[in-house]
Design goal:
Layout (H helix, E strand, L loop, with lengths): L23 H20 L3 H19 L1 E2 L2 E2 H16 L4 E3 L6 H4 L1 E2 L6 E2 L13 E7 L2 E8 L4 E10 L7 H17 L5 E12 L4 H9 L10 H13 L4 E12 L10 H18 L2 E6 L2 H12 L4 H10 L15 E4 L4 E3 L2 E10 L11 H4 L5 E11 L1 H24 L6 H18 L4 E12 L2 H17 L3 E4 L4 H5 L11
Antiparallel strand pairs: 1-2, 3-12, 4-5, 6-7, 7-8, 8-10, 8-11, 9-10, 9-15, 12-13, 13-14, 14-16, 14-17, 15-16
Helix pairs in contact: 1-2, 5-8, 12-13
């Protein structure tokens, strides 16, 4: 066993804009400030006009450069305007009214005995999303369809052995094989891959059910000291017990589907098989692709994780029930506010992982966030494979741009900051990795924290922020974009522009 362990380091977030690091909004703000300043001098060619022009220029620089809660004012303006317009149009509230009359709530086809449910009504941020079924070896599998079927997503339910209990060599080997899974889809029709880890309140009797199934048949179910002691222990811990769920979403897009003679759903099935085989080699147990009803349940628990116990109770009573239909997959009522998103009985707050570790970290760096916790939260990371040709072109341009910037600073006698040196080192490292044959992906991570009320949500957010800080992660709350940001932690492979 080697004494040297691999370390992992993330490069700085690229902020390439219209003119190097200058964003289009910044350039527009500076140009507008200059125009207003010149106009004020033309209208009043005096000391007062010069003072006004200087004030306008300073205000333009402040709006373009000074960050507020992680964003400059030119970035906040479109967010605030979109939030205001959505409120004026009534788009931040949604209610689904269900008629109590069963003849109006369901339709029956003549000549058939089974009722047909009307289509569900997703929230405004998911109006183009629908659940479809595709046949695979005699079994119906669920597909999330977007953009009128031009974008399809299939979800795999997975289970992984505790990563923390593995020795360091096994941890590095598993991460290396996960990297192979991502690189294997770089030249395929796969658009994005997303992993999602979700915690939700466990059923109060779940541990007792496990005891009943796992105990030695020779031990009576009640009356013995060992069983009574265990029942007493789990009765006190049932309040904080959590279910952990791991989902892998694979998405294909008609725009990237090269084999035009093959239907898009068949291409999705083929790529899901490929990814499933790769996950098995990475010691990740693939339980199977979700059926339409199971996909509906996964979506519903995402909207209201505190309603999972009722769904499980229905499945216990009705053995034929396995999940939820499309009509029940969506929440009945939603409301978006500036800093949270309400869905039926749950309050959600979504954060963007705006900063990844800048120092060398071990494979266990996210354990502080993904480990045991008594809060309800969902962590999602979406990956978008980049073709080697595009990666090579971008990294060569980045290296050339960094060299030109360094030479320009040298001529003007300016020094380099630590952040600039990190960006240059990251570009050189990317170039070397691509030359060695490695593939490249874009990624974005999000965390949604949930609570039953505002106070519980506030406490849960504080705990998650503390765990993220221990994992060297910077979380930024998606103010004014909570409805859209919440969908980034659903199995839809969203979040990358």
């Amino acid at each position: 066993m080697s004494d040297e362990r691999l370390g992992y380091r993330f490069g700085p977030l690229e902020r390439r804009g219209l003119l190097g690091p200058v964003r289009p909004g910044q350039a527009l703000t500076l140009v507008l400030g200059a125009v207003l300043g010149v106009t004020s001098i033309d209208l009043s060619p005096s000391v007062g006009g010069a003072v006004i022009a200087a004030g306008v220029a300073a205000a333009a620089v402040g709006v373009a450069a000074i960050p507020v809660a992680g964003r400059a004012a030119d970035q906040w303006i479109p967010v605030a305007l979109a939030f205001l317009i959505s409120g004026l149009k009534g788009g931040r509230r949604r209610h689904t009214f269900i008629s109590p009359a069963p003849t109006r709530g369901m339709r029956r086809t003549v000549g058939q005995g089974a009722p047909v449910e009307p289509p569900g009504q997703p929230p405004g941020s998911l109006t183009d999303v629908g659940i479809q079924a595709v046949d695979y070896r005699g079994r119906a599998l669920g597909i999330l369809s977007e953009r009128r079927g031009r974008r399809l997503t299939m979800v795999l339910a997975c289970r992984a052995a505790s990563f923390a209990l593995l020795d360091p060599d096994a941890q590095e080997r598993r991460l290396s094989r996960w990297g192979l899974v991502l690189s294997s889809v770089a030249e395929t029709s796969v658009r994005r891959i997303q992993w999602l880890e979700r915690t939700s309140p466990a059923r109060a009797d779940q541990l007792a059910r496990w005891l009943h199934q796992a105990r030695d048949p020779a031990i009576p179910p009640r009356g013995t000291p060992i069983v009574e002691s265990y029942l007493e222990l789990i009765s006190g811990s049932a309040r904080v017990a959590q279910d952990h769920e791991i989902l892998i979403a694979i998405q294909v897009d008609a725009a990237g589907h090269r084999e035009r003679g093959q239907p898009l759903d068949e291409a999705l099935l083929e790529q899901c098989e490929r990814v499933a085989r790769g996950l098995e080699t990475a010691d990740i147990k693939v339980l199977g692709a979700l059926a339409p009803s199971q996909l509906g349940r996964a979506l519903r628990i995402g909207f209201d994780p505190f309603g999972g116990a009722e769904i499980a109770a229905l499945e216990t009573v009705d053995r034929d029930r396995d999940g939820l239909s499309a009509v029940n997959a969506w929440p009945l009522a939603t409301r978006e506010s500036w800093d949270r998103y309400l869905c039926d009985g749950a309050h959600h707050a979504t954060y963007w992982i705006g900063g990844w570790p800048r120092v060398d970290v071990s494979p266990m760096f996210m354990d502080a966030l993904l480990g045991s916790s008594d809060v309800v939260r969902t962590v999602s990371v979406s990956f978008e494979p980049i073709s080697p040709t595009r990666s090579t072109r971008e990294v060569e341009a980045a290296v050339t741009r960094d060299r030109a910037d360094r030479e320009l600073r040298r001529r003007f006698g300016q020094g380099e900051t630590a952040r600039q040196r990190q960006a240059q080192e990251a570009a050189v490292r990317r170039e070397a990795e691509l030359a060695a044959g490695h593939a490249e992906v874009r990624l974005a991570g999000f965390v949604t924290v949930s609570g039953r009320d505002e106070n519980e949500l506030r406490r849960a957010c504080s705990q998650v922020l503390e765990h993220a800080a221990r994992a060297h992660l910077e979380l930024h709350r998606m103010y004014g974009q909570q409805a859209d940001a919440f969908t980034f932690t659903l199995p839809l492979a969203r979040g990358l522009r």
